[in-house]
Please model this.
Amino acid sequence: MTGALDSRGSRRALIAAGLASASGLSGCGSIWPFSSGKARMPDLPAVSGKGSIRSLWSASFPGAVGFQPALVGGNVWVASPAGAVGVFEVRTGKPVWRADAERRLLSGIGTDGRIGVVAARDGSLLAFTDGGKLAWSVSTGAEVVSVPAVGAGLVVVRSSDNRVSAFDAASGARRWSFQRQGPPLVLRQTGAIAIDSAQAYVGLPGGRLVSLVADAGAQRWEAAVAIPRGSNEIERIADVVGTPLRSGNDVCAIAFQGRLACLDAATGRTLWSREISSSMGIALDNGALVATDDRGHVHAFARSGASLWRQEKLAGRGLSSPLLSVAHVVVVDSEGEAHLLSRDDGAILARVSTGGKPVTGALVGLDQLALFQTQGGALHALAFD
Model:
C-alpha cells in the first residue's frame, strides 16, 4: 500500500480516516492508513552516488490500492479494477494475451505461471489459463481482502470474515477453510499469503501470524508479530501488512503500529524483532531484510537481525514497499519518483519519475528490473544498474 502516515500525525489522521470510511465487514470496521489532508511533500534529496534507473516500458493498466503485478518466469501477469486481466513479456512489454473478467475486481492477480486468479467485488474468484480462457469461477461467500495466492496446487485467500479458504487450483473446488475471530477495527489493506510446498503463512489483523498445513488447513502454529496497545480501538490496530516472506528457515512479517519480526518457520518461535511500524511490506533474501516505515525511513537488517543501515533522507515522501536486488534497493514515493538505493549503505544513487502517481501495491522484480502499478493507470517496468 501507499500513503503512509508520519508518526506525529498518524493518530489524528487515522481517526479522520476511520470516521470517513469505517464500514461493516462481517461485523468489523475497516480504515485506510491515509491522511484526510495532503501534507506538503518534502523536497527531493540530492543523489549521492553512481547508479542508473530508467523506464524500460509501460502499459495502460489502471491500478487501485491492493493491485500489484505477479511475475513468473519471463511474463508479468496483471489485473485492473475494471476487470481487465493480461500478461506481458517482462523484458519487452509485448502483450501476450488480454481477457475481460466482466466484473469489477478487488485486488491484484495471483499466479503460478499456469493459471492467474483474481477476486471480484461480488465475492467470487476467477481463474484464467494461458491465453485468457476462463477456467473456473467460484463464490467464496464473502469479500476477499487478500491477493489470491497460488501454489502447491491451491488458491488461498483471506476474506472479510477473517476466514482463510483454499480452493483446488485445477477445478476451483473448496479444499478447506480456517477462521479466527477478528478485532472490531482493522486496517483496510491488501497483502497476500505466502505458500511453500507444506505450509501457508497468513498475516492476520491483531498482529498475528499463523502457519497452516497446506493440504489440510490445520494450524501448525500461531505467533504474535505485534501486540495491540493503546486506550482505544484505533490505537490498538496492529495488523500484519504486506506479505509474510519465507527464506531459508525463517518467515518474516511486519505490522502497522507494531513490529518487524522474523520467526522460525517450523515452530513459530520469534528469532528477533524490531519496533517498526509500517503500512507497507518487506523485502527479503538470503542475505538481508529491508523495510520502509511510516515515517519514510528505509531500514536494512542482516538476517541475524543486526541493523545494517537506515536511510532517512526520504522521510515524509510516502514510500512504497521496497524491492531488494543483488546490489540495490528500489522504493517509489507517493509522487511517483522511483529511488535507487545502494544495498551496501542505503545511499541514494539515482532516481526517475514515473508520472507523479503513487504505487498501488507491492513492487516485484526480476534481476535488475522493477515492475509495479500506479494510481495513474499504468503498469511500469524500470531497469536499473
